[in-house]
TrEMBL record:
It holds the Pfam family Acetyltransf_1. It comes from Paenibacillus agaridevorans. It comes from the Bacteria. The lineage of its organism: Bacteria, Bacillati, Bacillota, Bacilli, Bacillales. The keyword Manganese does not apply. This is GCN5 family acetyltransferase. InterPro entries: Acyl_CoA_acyltransferase, GNAT_dom.
Length: 203
């Protein structure tokens, strides 16, 4: 394990303990805009989605036995999340569980059309509410930049309204290389105008 500021950063499958459950709690709090349709009960969301983290693709920043932040980095070919219908239906009910499997798979397991080589895809960065603003997400990303053997790193489709995330990525040296406009209808519904993609080439 490496010490990054106040946090120990390790791959999630090596961190042991309750990491999956704690990651699901961070996910429920940080990605709620995708989830409220399925349930407004945080415990239900935690139980329904805890199965989906592919732990060897994730890194966690630990403060003792607490997961302060997490993030994934894939080779642009594998997925960091794998949604399964059975646990989604068990906790969300048959209809919403099936909808979650269908809709969220499209959002969260989007394959790269032409996956770039020597490139890590940084995905699903999230910090527990009580650890926000303390460098936990930065520790996770810096660990990935230091330890993973990619020449380039990309972060796909960050909402232009997500100022904390964009500031975080830019502070660590990522720059915008692409932006996609949402349709006027999608923009009205979500308040998001563009999805921004960022990249960083390792020196
Ligand atoms: C975005 C997020 C991961 C940041 O995590 P964090 O651990 O609080 O970030 P850090 O403490 O490492 O912050 C590093 C830098 O990010 C920027 N930043 C972080 N939070 C910010 C905020 N609320 N407003 C503006 N800038 C912010 C700042 O530049 C900060 O540097 P500074 O502390 O020197 O000002 C966190 O807010 C979160 O979990 N959000 C919900 C999930 C999400 O949107 N994930 C990103 C999906 S693309």
């Amino acid at each position: 394990m490496k010490h990054s500021g106040a946090f120990e950063v390790d791959r999630a499958d090596r961190a042991g303990g309750e990491v999956r459950h704690q990651m699901a709690e961070i996910f429920a709090d940080g990605f709620s805009q995708w989830l409220t349709y399925f349930s407004r009960d945080r415990d239900v969301i935690v139980n329904a989605f805890a199965h989906m983290f592919v732990l060897d693709q994730f890194y966690v920043a630990l403060a003792g036995d607490r997961v302060a932040a997490f993030g994934a980095c894939t080779d642009c070919r594998s997925f960091s999340l794998e949604l399964q219908s059975a646990p989604l239906r068990r906790y969300l009910g048959w209809f919403k569980g099936s909808m979650a499997a269908l809709i969220l798979k499209r959002e969260f397991q989007k394959p790269f059309v032409d996956p770039p080589s020597e490139t890590g895809s940084v995905e699903f960065i999230g910090t527990a509410l009580s650890f926000r603003g303390q460098g936990a997400a930065s520790a996770v990303i810096l660990h990935m930049l230091d330890h993973l053997p990619y020449r380039n790193f990309i972060i796909e489709e960050v909402a232009d309204t997500n100022i904390p995330a964009i500031r975080l990525y830019e502070k660590l040296g990522f720059t915008e290389y692409k932006r996609k406009s949402l349709s006027p209808k999608q923009a009205r519904r979500s308040g998001i105008n563009h999805m921004v993609s960022l990249c960083l080439e390792k020196a």
